[in-house]
Design a protein that fits this description.
The complex is a heterodimer of chains A (286) and B (482).
Chain A (H helix, E strand, L loop, with lengths): L2 E8 L2 E15 L4 E7 L4 E5 L2 E5 L3 H13 L7 E5 L5 H6 L7 E5 L3 H10 L1 H4 L7 E4 L3 H6 L5 E6 L14 H10 E12 L4 H17 L2 E8 L7 E8 L10 H6 L9 H7 L4 H12 L2
Parallel strand pairs in A: 6-7, 6-9, 7-8, 9-10
Antiparallel strand pairs in A: 1-2, 2-3, 3-4, 4-5, 10-12, 11-12
Chain B lengths: L1 H5 L3 H12 L16 H7 L1 H5 L17 H12 L4 E5 L2 H13 L5 E5 L4 H10 L2 E5 L15 H10 L5 E5 L6 E2 L2 H10 L3 E6 L22 E4 L12 E5 L5 H11 L6 H39 L3 E2 L12 E2 L3 E5 L7 H12 L5 E2 L3 E5 L6 H18 L20 H6 L2 E5 L12 E3 L5 E3 L7 H13 L3 E2 L8 E5 L1
Parallel strand pairs in B: 2-3, 2-4, 4-6, 6-7
Antiparallel strand pairs in B: 1-8, 5-10, 7-8, 9-11, 11-13, 12-13, 14-18, 15-16, 15-17
Helix pairs in contact in B: 2-11, 5-11, 6-7, 6-10, 8-9, 11-13, 12-13
Classes of the chains: A alpha/beta (286), B alpha+beta (482).
Chain lengths: 286, 482
Amino acid sequence: MEIWFSDFSTPNIRLDIRVTRQLFSGTSDYRQIDVFDSIDLGRFISLDGNVVFSEKDEFIYDEMVVHVPMAVHPRVRRVLVIGGGDGGVAKELCAYPEIERIDVVETDPMFVDVCREFFPETAEGLEDKRVKIYNEDGLRFLRSRTDEYDLIINDSTDPFGPTEGLFTKEFYGNCYKALRSDGIMVYQHGSPFYDEDEDACRAMHKKVYRSFPISRVYQAHIPTCPSGYWLFGFASKKYHPLADFKAAEWNARNIKTWYYTTNLHTGAFMLPRYVEDILKEAEEQI
Amino acid sequence: MGNNRQQSAPLYEALERIRRMRIVPFDVPGHKRGRGNPELAALLGERCVSLDVNSMKPLDNLCQPSSVILDAENLAAEAFGAAGCFFMVGGTTSAVQSMILSVCKEGDKIIVPRNVHKSVINSLVLCGAIPVYVNPETDKRLGIALGMEPHAVERAVKENPDAVAVLVNNPTYYGICSDLREIVRIAHANGMKALADEAHGTHFYFNDKLPVSAMEAGADMSAVSMHKSGGSLTQSSLLLLGPDTDADYVRQIINLTQTTSASYLLMSSLDISRRNLALHGEESFDKVIRMAQYAREEINELGDYYAYGKELVNGTSVYDFDVTKLSVFTRDIGLAGIEVYDILRDEYDIQIEFGDIGNILAYISIGDRLQDIERLVGALGDIKRLYKRDKTGMLADEYIVPEVAVAPKAAFYSPKETLPIRQTEGRICGEFVMCYPPGIPILAPGERITKDIIEYIEYAKKKGCSMQGTADIAVEHLNVLR
């Protein structure tokens, strides 16, 4: 018997994953949630038919959104994670003893429950006593926060559908307000390769570039995302991701990673020409 | 019993039957189910263009309905608690015009609030009736025109016993309702017809928490924009009749100006929407009310904005308030409503219904999602953070009492000359000037132009309001009577 899960990168291109069994299927107030076991990617979770992460490549996202800003900002005390219901980001953050509080805002309580049940190793990040989970809309949560966070990580990946409000100018503006005067916002910047994704990527950079004094983009290779190529955004009120990068200090911490290194940190900001062009055009399109 | 009948949608069902019969079309429209226009079919979808068909026996004819359209209209009448109903395909403008042309003839007087939609005054240009304006009170802070007060209607009726009808907005664009039952009573007691412009009131018919509807209040006719809160396609509308209205005469009036090729897309959308409202209207509008109320609370929580609601109700000029309307007063952040409207669209990709000098209106409907409400509130918060400025020197939106010097029709057809707007003070205007939306005239044909009005127009233009009605698109000049 063969069961294949198709993840559509575009209506015409798909990634097929052979599934050994389906562990969960349910519909929350926001979306359909499914969990599968596969041979090569291990266990993976999909939302409305799109792979969110797999056991095999989940560490790449988590490390890249956490260690990059943590190696730049000298003094992170309070962190806000938006959409981090799986706990992976919180887990990486827990490696930093100076962090006092991690607020995780996940709209969908079912997503948290499913992750806790089927991805206990990842979700253990949510059990740390510094972590507090809020089941609330991200924009709503941010509205009443001013000058509170050193770091905001937007872990939502999909600029279409229920989380689309987290890829808007109002979201970035509200993040700016919620950050302290030297705060950093890191976010999923999508894949720049296929046309529709490229448009979303362009629009996103245009909005962030206009909302923050410093706005840079960095990259990673993530097999389950469209085209396998993924971008992250680094928006900041004060610190530059390379000029203020403290490699030696970070290495002295001896944090165990599988993807991130301080060499990779610098390299991740070196982008292909076509991506540089997309970003530059978005910046000039004022 | 009502609900069982309301589950059917005769026109929609007839279209489905026709579609399955795969009839070979040797009639119009010439695109022949889209085959002759593949680009159009690709844009709208094959299903959609295949339903764009001509009147034929199994599908009835809007001009003289006798089968499925008549059945659909009767079901709509039943759903709205009306004695009769006409499907309209020329927008609510056509419903308003037919309503007025049905009761007014050349020289007749009709009592109307001045803050009517331009379609009302257009009808007066067409038929030569003379408006007797009841000047609404204005809310000083918000700068919006309020409802018609019964005592003002009473006075107008006493002063104009020969008037043939009274027309009421139910509600206004901003959600303000007049004491409709009382106004209907006054009109009927004086032998006048009571008409309602319910372009913004479709939902009143389907939820007990909302203000009284025109049919329930005993009005003789009402123009209902199904395509606004009712969910049908743009340009489809209903004209409802009370028990003492001659439906056959109204149909003749409608047929004076109505197309003989009515769109089945529009008509079937009315049929399906009516069914949906009759079956699910109550719960749908409960949800809309909850969303609007949530948005109001959250926006007021932001500070400096004022999203107003039921607290405006005072028993007279604001007899009731439509809580599904999300109107927000913006002047305290130092921005005109139209400026916030533009920023929302240009910077935040959020399109709202309109902005005027002091307010914005976001239209909340059965199609909205809570996450989009969060975006709107988040964007308003961000606009306040980034754009807030000193509000001194901002013009309060003001209702300017017009002086009707000449009847609209006479003025519209009079010999005119074109003058730069600054030189028109004291002259009689020969055309409309309005911000669109909301489409409520600042000047109508036959009204005297004053200094206040000129300043208001120039201020509205400067703030970015889209001005309409004048022959000069740029509104630098006005046509005035010679």
